[in-house]
Amino acid sequence: MTAPCEKLNILLVDDQPAKLLSYEVMLAELGENLIKASSAREALEQLLKADIAVILVDVCMPEQDGFELAAMIREHPRFQKIAIIFISAIQMAEVDHLRGYRMGAVDYMPVPVIPEVLRAKVKVFVELYRKSKELEQLNSELERRVAERTRELAASNARLIASEDRRNLALSAGNMGAWDWNIADGSCLWDEALCRIFGVPAGFEVTQDNVGALFHPEDWRRLDAALSAADPEQTSWRTDFRILRSDGELRWCTGTATAVFDGSGRLARLSGVVADITDRKRIEEHQMLLAREVDHRAKNSLAVVQSIVRLTRADTIRDYQTRVEGRIQALSKVHSLLAHSRWEGADVHTLVQEELTPYQMGGAEYIGVSGPRVSVTPPVAQTMALALHELATNAAKYGALSAAGGRVQLNWQVSAGGLVLTWREIGGPPATAPQRMGLGLQTIMSGARSQVGGQANFDWRPDGLVCTVTLPCGDAKSAARAARHGFGPDREPHEKAAGKPRILIVEDEPLVAMMLTGFLDQLDCTALGPCATPFDALSFLKENAIDAAILDVNLGGETVYPVADALHRVRVPFAFLTGYGGESIEPRFADTARLEKPVGFDALAAIVRLLRDSARTRPAPVNLRA
């Protein structure tokens, strides 16, 4: 890791010695190495000799100007990420600024240069360069450790496989659970270990009927068929089977048998060993369950990312990329915190620091944070992370963090109503309510209300925005189950456009629900909801008529089947939405239409066509009171 006292190199490029000297004086107190170059050629020579953190270059120079030098620097792969700050003594047009940014400039400084501003800007990029170098070294060290760990795991796995083979060999050699059947005289012997496996007393009378009663009927028929087809070409078998012990317990066993044939090719003798593998089977089933759960969680995460990509709006591609990446990074940070706690919860103070660190650059405290140590559930943590990201991004663009001297005070406290966060902006431009609700506000409001049963309030004051978000501290499923049908006060889900099918959305991820609503709008349908729990959905259906429904199977750990049963009783068509595979749907709904996350527009359109066709068989929309 780069030592804190290690100096970094700053390259000063200007054809006038006096200006180079002035820049050197201005930047001396930063304590970094200042390298001077009087031409583009000298600047390139210095770049090849040393690692440069920041380049300060004059736009107007003889032979090659600053733009041409920047273009040459950016052509070299090694120098593509160096920060370049242009200094210009002439008034530059907007097209000149755009040209400079295309050449790789990160900032402009007009002449006369203000020393404090120059030092502040250079310091920011020097610190960014230092942090980048540290991260590169950490990443290299991490890759080395991962490679070492991978080799260790491979060796350990090889040892485990070899050990398993030796254990199986020892089990067979030790006659654990051994049996022998002399077909010629009909005698069959079981040792005590085999009696313990099958749960019968020692001295158990071994007859075909008695033994058959201990096997699962399907497996006994399979084994009997294999025995009837035995021939001298195959003298050994190994298979897994189920047994039914006398106490009613079902257990899994694996058996190995060897056959002896007489001179005429008839089966004369069978012997073998049996091992109880119930624990292994349970582990395999648990692993399959974990794999399905991981697949479900991954698909849900992809669905949220898909929703962010679909719902984000921007005027330029660069702005769009910045907004999408910011929202995904906010989710990534809280996912890392939750993974560290095995998805049991997240500490609010740690979560706040993770989300707001990018806005505490250069050692300045632009955001004051205070509040008690408190842990919140995963749904609340994800909602809080996205809300903090949207508030901070908005403050940096339009609010207090966009103005010199502007600050934000964030505090939280625990009350009877839950966890109350207050975001207060100070010293920025006057706050005015937006004319339309963008994705950021929708994310905060619908996330608090629809996903965890909380609420968010915005106070657009002349001295700055004040946002209060109330979230439950306990289990989100026990939060207030008030009517949470809609994404904001300007959306009335009960309105029905003439001729449009009314489709209820039951989904606990607000962003996914917003995306589905947009899809349904494009498909000329009226989207109702969303409802985030089965309770909410059933309450909604008691008061509202619908034509069809889209039901997320897993709603925060609860299944949506009570809603599906209710809709089935009144013959309202519906489709399932799930991150699990089709095998996870209860058999009674095996023929129900199903959408897998992440949802594509074409797939949803096909489902909507099916639901429309089914809805046409009913004369009018119905509700549960009908």
Helices and strands, with pairings:
Blueprint: E1 9-13, H1 17-27, E2 33-37, H2 40-49, E3 52-58, H3 66-75, E4 83-88, H4 94-102, E5 105-110, H5 115-173, E6 178-182, E7 187-190, H6 192-198, H7 208-214, H8 217-228, E8 236-244, E9 250-261, E10 267-276, H9 278-311, H10 317-340, E11 346-347, H11 348-356, E12 367-370, E13 375-376, H12 378-397, E14 407-415, E15 418-426, H13 439-451, E16 455-461, E17 464-471, E18 502-506, H14 510-522, E19 526-531, H15 534-543, E20 548-552, E21 554-555, E22 558-559, H16 561-569, E23 574-578, E24 594-596, H17 601-615
Parallel strand pairs: 1-2, 1-3, 3-4, 4-5, 12-14, 18-19, 18-20, 20-23, 23-24
Antiparallel strand pairs: 6-7, 6-10, 8-9, 9-10, 11-13, 14-15, 15-17, 16-17, 21-22
Would you give an account of this structure?
The protein is α/β, with parallel strands linked by helices and 626 residues long. The chain is 43% helix and 22% strand. Helix 10 (317-340) runs antiparallel to helix 12, helix 11 runs parallel beside helix 12 and helix 15 (534-543) runs parallel beside helix 16. The longest helix is centred in the N-terminal third of the chain and has 59 residues, at 115-173. Residues 475-497 have low confidence and may be disordered.
